[in-house]
Amino acid sequence: MKAIDIIRNEHRALAAVLRALEATIADLRDGRRPPDFRLLAAMIDYIVRVPEEVHHPKEDGVFFPHIRAACPDAVPIIDELEHQHHRGREHVLQLAMSLIHFQAVGAAAQESFCAAAERYVAFSWTHIEMEERQLLPLLSDRLAPAAWAEIDAAFAANADPWRGTADEFERLFSRITALVPAPLGLGDRRSGLASRIT
Ligand SMILES: [Fe+2]
Ligand SMILES: [Fe+2]
Which structural domain, as residue segments, surrounds residue 130? Predict the structure, then answer.
């Protein structure tokens, strides 16, 4: 796959986790289900290991520098997206810490966890939508073939965002499918996000 397809595919995998997190927050608040700490930890582990440790660093390190050099009109968008990546790390740290606190003290910390999860989810939708709606449509033919070759090679080295390097995410996504039925869960991997942003 080319880098743009890989980026969209990684966004859709994160979108599935975001929808599952939204559904889980709603269930907790309505008292429909007790907290499943193992599932919550698996979702946050995914957020740390795929978007935070692989996807965003590769955008910052390989993708954005080429766009910055070739597309002056995209520079304000890149500035904002890089700023969001930086802020995203703070959101994820707060999310992880609030889950630990929730697990440690129980119901008294449920609302603070739900609020941290909502902040992260809202932040992530804004970020994905900005990249998909404002940045990617600008690019088409504007980067040189050599730049695309470097970007494609960098993203092609990423593990499958639905499976991981050792199928470690398969269980998480099968549980997400059960938790949030299609199209709200995994749905169609190619068009799942489109329903969210169109
Ligand atoms: Fe990003
Ligand atoms: Fe992205």
Answer: 3-197
Please tell me the predicted confidence (pLDDT) of residue 181: 61
Is residue 103 exposed (0-12), middle (13-18) or buried (19+ Cβ within 10 Å)? middle
Distance in Å, CA 33 to ligand 1 centroid:
32
CA 32 / ligand 1 centre spacing (Å): 33
**Where does the pLDDT of residue 189 fall: very low under 50, low under 70, confident under 90, or very high at 90 and above?**
very low
Taking the CA of 155 as reference, the closest ligand is 2
| Ligand closest to CA 80 | 1
Surrounding residues of ion ligand 2, Cβ less than 5 A: 131
For 166, half-sphere exposure in the C-beta direction (CA atoms, 13 angstrom radius) is: 0
In the chain, how many domains are there? 1
Q: Distance between CA atoms of 34 and 41, rounded to whole angstroms?
A: 14
On the question of pLDDT at 146 being above 70, the answer is yes
Helix %, strand %, coil % of the chain (to 5): 80, 0, 20
Which CATH number covers residue 71? 1.20.120.520
Asked if pLDDT for residue 91 goes beyond 90, the answer is yes
Q: What is the pLDDT of residues 49-74, one digit of tens each?
A: 999 999 999 999 999 999 999 999 99
Ion ligand 1: residue ranges with CB closer than 5 A: 59
**In the structure, what pLDDT confidence band is assigned to residue 140 with cuts at 50, 70 and 90?**
confident
